[in-house]
Amino acid sequence: MSIDSLKAQMPDFAKDVKLNLSNMSGEEGLTEQQKYGLMVACAIASRNTTVREAFIAEAADKLSAEALTAAKGAATLMGMNNIYYRFVHLASNKDYSSMPAKLRMNFIARPGVDKVDFELWSLAVSAMNGCGMCIDSHEGILRQAGLTTEQVQTAIRFAAIIQSAAIALEAA
């Protein structure tokens, strides 16, 4: 399984998704680790087995074992954090924002990769999960670390493409 095999499974109505998938590997604004880590984290967050398997296979020889684990960790932790912090942000009762989360997040402190890469993956997954509070937090850290708006936008574009691939497969 790979991006090419995923593209071959795209239904006719998803031609744009197929074209967008074709452009991802050639993206030049991000490092290889950032690119392929994004693919893995977003594919896991899409919750589609076919998409997940395709992107993990695509990244297998491009990511170290540590980077692959970190991308999986970003998807997993954001799955938890995005629900919690989206609730805190959206709840009318603002008491929740002053309460400790009491969620274990030790992996964030030492993900095994450069913090910027982990934050980029976390941002993309947070966008997929619709958590504005997490989006603002991760985007702020990335901008302070020197990433450009174009690099941040690329991460979100990857998330959008991967999610649309999952939806296309479900709709077929």
TrEMBL record:
Keyword list, A-Z: Antioxidant, Disulfide bond, Oxidoreductase, Peroxidase, Redox-active center
Gene3D superfamilies referenced in this protein's UniProt entry, alphabetically: AhpD-like
First-tier enzyme category under EC: oxidoreductase
EC number, UniProt record: 1.11.1.28
Disulfide bonds: C131-C134
Keyword Transmembrane recorded: no
Record GO biological process: cell redox homeostasis; response to oxidative stress
InterPro entries recorded: AhpD, AhpD-like, AhpD_core, CMD-like
Active site per database record: C131 (proton donor), C134 (cysteine sulfenic acid (-soh) intermediate)
Known catalytic reactions: N(6)-[(R)-dihydrolipoyl]-L-lysyl-[lipoyl-carrier protein] + a hydroperoxide = N(6)-[(R)-lipoyl]-L-lysyl-[lipoyl-carrier protein] + an alcohol + H2O
UniProt key word Signal: no
Limits of the Carboxymuconolactone decarboxylase-like domain: 99-168
Single annotated GO MF: peroxiredoxin activity
Cross-referenced PANTHER family: ALKYL HYDROPEROXIDE REDUCTASE AHPD
Family as reported in the entry's similarity comment: Belongs to the AhpD family.
Its biological purpose: Antioxidant protein with alkyl hydroperoxidase activity. Required for the reduction of the AhpC active site cysteine residues and for the regeneration of the AhpC enzyme activity.
Protein name: Alkyl hydroperoxide reductase AhpD
Organism: Cohaesibacter celericrescens
